[in-house]
Predict the structure of ABC transporter ATP-binding protein.
Amino acid sequence: MSDTTPPLRLATVERRYRTEAGELPVLRGADLVLRAGEIVALVAPSGTGKSTLLHLAGLLERPDGGEVFVEGRAAGTLSDDARTAIRRTTIGFVYQFHHLLPEFTAEENVVLPQLAAGTARAAARERARGLLANFGLNGREHHRPGRLSGGEQQRVAIARALANAPRILLADEPTGNLDVGTAGLVFEELLQAVRGQGLAALIATHNPELAARMDRTVTLRDGRVAEA
């Protein structure tokens, strides 16, 4: 990838869902460019396609039209294995609900995606401990999710998303399940981590105060991306 190639580009992406009433178009030619070091807020009403856009960008779904380019590579027609490999090494995803594996400790939850990507266990543990420490979780590494607060669980989820040093971070309401005070703290830690690593980040949020702390804001209108 050249220095001028954006980590993520969506080109006239379309997505339709089949319902009992017929096809439901959600995205109708969405275009978006996400550059390295840029944090973009995605703010739009519920039901307009925010999660769909993130899932397409994260290669969790395939577009019905248009193309998703990851580091300049067209990903829409790649095999499932190739798309999985890109997700493991290039894309980090944070959900509103942490989706931590309850039977594993905080450290193990951050180690596991690294092992799946081929990292040696000792190196994976060292990186996991460093990430957890950066999020203020010293002394909590060996706690399972059930023994962590909501804010701590989401911090672990963010550390997990960053474990394989992705170039792209996608987040779907990452603090939407937290109280206002905890949400502000966790969000600030997320921004610092993203800026510190120079990632390209797209973060969906309903909170205009959080959106205002990012570099720019986009929305969805009639199935297309527009500057807010």
